[in-house]
Structure prediction request, 464 residues.
Amino acid sequence: MIDFGHVEKYRENNRIEAKRALGGLPYSVWETYSSFANTMGGVILLGVEEGKDKSFHAVDLPNPQALIDKFWRQVNDKRRVNVNILTKHDVRIERVNGKRIVVIEVPRAHRADKPVYIENDMMTGTYRRGGEGDYRCTPEEIAAMRRDAAERTQDMRLLEGVLPEALCTDTIAAYRELLRTLRPGHALERCSVNELLIQLGAAGVGSDGRLHPSAAGLLMFGSPAAIAESFPFYSVQVTGGDAPAAAPIHDNLFRFYHTVTAALHKRFHRSTYAWEALTEGLVNCLVNADHRERGGVSVEITEDRVRFSNPGAFRINPDSARRGGVSDARNRAISHMFVMMGVGAGIGGGIPRMFGNWRRANHPTPFFTEGFDPERTTLTLPLKRIRTDAHTKRRAVPEAVAKQLLAEHLTHVIFARASQISAAVGMSLPRVRHYLTLMCREGTVVAEGTGKHAVYRLRERAGR
Prediction:
């Protein structure tokens, strides 16, 4: 993650923290350990200080092994940290210009291990990483992490205070008709309505012996009033693309899916690849949304992009999601219902397939951004517009989208040359250099060196 031969090129940011540690293991290590684990992961450098120009310099630790030994004792002490997510390879001694430092690489914690907290107190010892450094999590953030840690996803829970009458019979009938069309002769075709709901995970028998909807069933098939009663922050919204409404609406997920796909189909019906990528993106948004959190689901269709945004952060490492093969939907029962409709991979292949199909449709690479205050995930699928003249040259990626794409890449790789960024994000080198120059002027990116050998990184974290 860090080139220790050129450590002076780095600055503290949301994924790097430097500490002199000449007086021993700093207590603040544990706050940073918690914050990195609960956010995107990061690197703690012991024996490194900032110069007046904010650049890093090694100070040569007198006994780095003693620091490591103390760190291992404490990270395995439940009174200090509730869980150790490190392996022996994550903590080591490195040399920088002949001086010894300690490197602690903290990975992003698996959702089953969150929240990672210190001092045996979840409510006051849970931290995350933000623009100002480490901050203490709110009770709402902690509750969201605890929900995600459950083995059974929250949408599988029966709502025993809700009766089957809360489900819309016309929506269930439309879903069933869709199954008949897509899966003729399937066993579900012969089921009664109640049996169908049980098999889908949309309902179940409660402790009172009566049938009740699950959270997934209510969200997928419920009436707006019933959904609002059980999920007071629930909302879904689509703007642009001849969508029928701009304000948040309260349709169930099945009807919202068809509302959005109808708006998308008007624009993208001629491109099979683009259409498949967009439906994957929409389903990914709906099955991974935390529908108990504020903000709701939003879909934005413009001339420059299609953007899907949902409350809730990634439950797995985003890099693993891009590679595929790992599936950990926040709402597994809802995911299963969409898979039965023929959309959504269900086995961890949806995201890489979506990326591939979007590129095959001759559009720039899609990208995700995450927010953690509050938790929110946004997927952007950028568009290229063809010029109206006879030239075949296409318009470049829109400025706002390009800047976000470059910032996301620098968040993950820490620093890179313009040529490396160009190859990674699929944008022309002159355009990458143009946007990097703008971002340097705006103060979001810093350039080290000049010309083709210049190295770019995100500006050090705010407040430093």
About this structure: The domain at 233-395 is CATH 3.30.565.60 (Heat Shock Protein 90). Confidence is low (pLDDT under 50) at residues 385-396. The first strand starts at residue 16 and ends at 19. The chain has four domains: 4-149, 152-231, 233-395, 399-458.
